[in-house]
Write a structure and sequence with these properties.
This protein has 139 residues and is an alpha+beta fold. It has helices spanning 3-20, 47-56; strands spanning 33-34, 38-39, 60-66, 70-77, 86-94, 98-106, 121-127, 132-137. It has a four-stranded mixed sheet with strand order 1-5-6-8, with no helix packed on it. A four-stranded antiparallel sheet has the order 2-7-4-3, covered by helices on one side. It is globular, with a radius of gyration of 21 Å. The mean pLDDT is 83.
């Protein structure tokens, strides 16, 4: 075989192996049960969770972290020029193949020019799961 044909065959084999490992999984949003959760305070956060928040807090983010016992759902809203923002959990439930979390982000009731910048976020702790976490916000 010529060199060009070998390259083409090699590329074909690599793509075949890569695509063979990919599959589409249908995500079901049908609620099976509510999930028990705890909103974790800064004092109760593990070092790993603190590190995630500190590294990502300046920009909006949504991330999960699972240790041997819990899955942490961490949602941050980036740097804000004022204090007094609030993040609340509106809904947290499990479907057959995912966990759905819906939060609400609200601003301060009053904006003051002397307020300090803040980095609003929420850390939610649930039992460890290997299911996908699906994020949404209240309108």
């Amino acid at each position: 075989m010529r060199k060009k044909q070998w390259k083409g065959l090699g590329l074909f084999l690599v793509l075949t192996f890569l695509l063979a490992g990919c599959s589409a999984e249908k995500v079901s949003s049908k609620k099976l049960r509510d999930v028990d959760f705890t909103v974790v305070s800064e004092l109760e956060m593990t070092e790993e969770v603190k590190k995630i928040v500190e590294e990502k807090k300046t920009a909006p983010f949504k991330v999960t972290f699972t240790d041997h016992e819990y899955t942490y759902i961490i949602i941050g809203y980036g740097k804000k020029n004022y204090e007094g923002y609030r993040v609340t959990v509106k809904e947290l439930y499990e479907s057959s193949n995912a966990v759905y979390v819906k939060t609400e982000f609200s601003g301060p009731k009053e904006y003051r020019t002397s307020s300090n910048a803040s980095y609003p976020y929420i850390v939610i702790k649930i039992e460890a799961t290997d299911k996908n976490i699906v994020f949404s916000e209240s309108e």
